[in-house]
């Protein structure tokens, strides 16, 4: 294993610098001890590994991968694994830090982690993906484990990838270790409701926000959804099922708009059958940028980071932004949206449903006792609703944005755990 070194990132701004800046601002606003902020500004551990992989044509490609643990004061670290050509170590570090805040805000006993491999999964065969995943797992095998660090799916990874990680880890240990990874297929110890959980949590969060805004409901609300992957596609489905009108959807191939409503079930089927939204009928093709600027009640960025920035934020017309993705709004854009009176439901709150049900999956795996889907959804609803109201109350009491309120609560909780445990040695 080589020591981790920062790499060049494709993003507009360095996401880890942004995450640290957010932490410093929250530290000042909530009068958090400077020493604590200094400790929490760094990741506990970051490893970079090389992943030589036999490709189908017989050649060997050496992929680069990372696994970062930000903090473990409240429990083992938890966070997804991203497969994407633009993954950088600093991106993974920022995502690991946000996971710490997310778990603390939800009140679940985990710290934050994240992993990533620089690769283009769409251009790889299933065999290549499996060999790369198994080698990556072997390279980080001493970092992960049910009491240590528990990966999950993120952009470019899914239940099948989690199954390979689970199997590789278990083969090395000599027995099945259900708690090593979450987001597994249900037939090998996954939780019912995990696949839809991130979107379901975002849906609950939006429902509560609308109730706060003069008792509005999802029924009759219009929404534009950027990113039609795991999070975005299920969010579109839940909104449409609840009587909302999804006026636009997009993926990396482009965006589609119909002011009278996209047929979400047809979009779902089209994406499943063709692997892309390209060629979707019943809607006008528009650019990905135009989707963000549509006239609608709710904008849900569910793709990648920094899509709402200082240049396009003044032209966002939605009244509520639901951050299905992690870090979709830059701090500069955040300030502009706040000035415009846009309510931003921040990532650490809005997309936390995934890690909450991952926590349920971990608990079920450790106990080898599995719950009904209705039980999973009801428990998720309880946790999301409680976290939403704690954040909303802090937002009102302190007159700070929902993001500041969420980060403030989370950083205070991690701070309390760190101080109570004390500095070792
Ligand atoms: P995914 O790979 O299933 O889907 C991502 C989708 O976004 C794809 O359809 C892709 O084409 C699209 N996309 C990427 N860039 C885009 C752009 N500029 N414009 C339009 N579409 C674009 O990934 P996912 O698991 O749905 O994750 C999406 C986001 O949600 C990420 O930020 C991830 O970190 C976050 N998240 C995911 C989970 C989870 O449980 N999967 C949990 C919490 C947060």
User: Whole-number radius of gyration?
Assistant: 20 Å
Provide the domain count: 2
* Portion in strands: 15-25%
Task: Tell me the number of helical segments per DSSP (H or I, 4 or more residues long).
Answer: 14
Oligomer: single chain
Strand order of the largest sheet: 10-9-8-7-11-12-13
Percent helix, as a range, is: 40-55%
Give the name of the CATH superfamily of the largest domain.
NAD(P)-binding Rossmann-like Domain
Shape: globular
What ligand molecules are bound, each kind once? nicotinamide-adenine-dinucleotide
Main sheet, how many strands, which sense, barrel?
7 strands, mixed
Distance between the termini: 26 Å
Averaged pLDDT: 96
Q: Which stretches of 5+ consecutive residues score pLDDT under 50? A: 1-10
CATH architecture level-2 label of the largest domain? 3-Layer(aba) Sandwich
CATH-defined fold name of the largest domain: Rossmann fold
CATH class of the largest domain: Alpha Beta
Q: Name the helix and strand elements from N-terminus to C-terminus, one letter apiece.
A: EHHEEEHEHEHHEHEEHEHEEHEHHHH
Broad structural category? alpha/beta
């Amino acid at each position: 294993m080589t020591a981790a070194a920062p790499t060049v990132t494709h993003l507009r701004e360095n996401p880890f610098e942004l995450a640290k800046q957010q932490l410093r601002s929250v530290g000042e606003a909530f009068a958090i001890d400077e020493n604590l902020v200094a400790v929490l500004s760094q990741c506990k551990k970051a490893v970079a590994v090389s992943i030589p992989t036999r490709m189908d044509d017989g050649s060997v490609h050496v992929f680069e991968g990372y696994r970062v643990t930000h903090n473990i004061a409240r429990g083992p670290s938890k966070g997804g694994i991203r497969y994407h050509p633009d993954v950088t170590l600093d991106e993974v570090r920022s995502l690991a830090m946000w996971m710490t805040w997310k778990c603390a805000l939800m009140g679940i006993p985990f710290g934050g982690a994240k992993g990533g491999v620089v690769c283009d999964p769409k251009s790889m065969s299933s065999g290549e993906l499996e060999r790369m995943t198994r080698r990556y797992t072997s390279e980080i095998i001493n970092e992960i484990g049910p009491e240590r660090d528990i990966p999950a799916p993120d952009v470019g990874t899914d239940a099948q990838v989690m199954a390979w990680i689970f199997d590789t880890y278990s083969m090395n240990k000599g027995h099945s270790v259900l708690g090593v990874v979450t987001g597994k297929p249900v037939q090998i110890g996954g939780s019912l409701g995990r696949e839809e959980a991130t979107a379901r949590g975002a849906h609950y969060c939006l429902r509560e926000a609308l109730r706060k805004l003069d008792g509005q409901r999802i029924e009759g609300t219009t929404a534009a959804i950027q990113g039609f992957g795991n999070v975005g596609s299920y969010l579109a489905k839940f909104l449409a099922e609840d009587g909302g009108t999804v006026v636009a959807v997009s993926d990396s191939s482009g965006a589609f708009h119909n002011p009278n409503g996209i047929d979400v079930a047809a979009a779902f089927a089209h994406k499943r059958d063709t692997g892309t939204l390209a060629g979707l009928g019943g809607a006008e093709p528009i650019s990905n940028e135009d989707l963000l600027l549509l006239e609608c009640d709710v904008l849900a960025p569910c793709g990648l980071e920094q899509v709402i920035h200082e240049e396009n934020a003044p032209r966002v017309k939605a009244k509520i932004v639901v951050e299905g993705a992690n870090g979709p709004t830059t701090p500069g854009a955040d300030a502009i949206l706040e000035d415009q009176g846009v309510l931003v439901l921040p990532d650490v709150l809005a997309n936390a449903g995934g890690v909450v049900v991952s926590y349920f999956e971990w608990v079920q795996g450790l106990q080898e006792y599995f719950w009904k889907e209705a039980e999973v959804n009801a428990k998720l609803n309880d946790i999301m609703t409680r976290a939403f109201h704690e954040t909303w109350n802090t937002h009102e009491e302190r007159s700070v944005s929902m993001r500041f309120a969420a980060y403030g609560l989370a950083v205070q909780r991690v701070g309390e755990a760190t101080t109570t445990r004390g500095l070792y040695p």
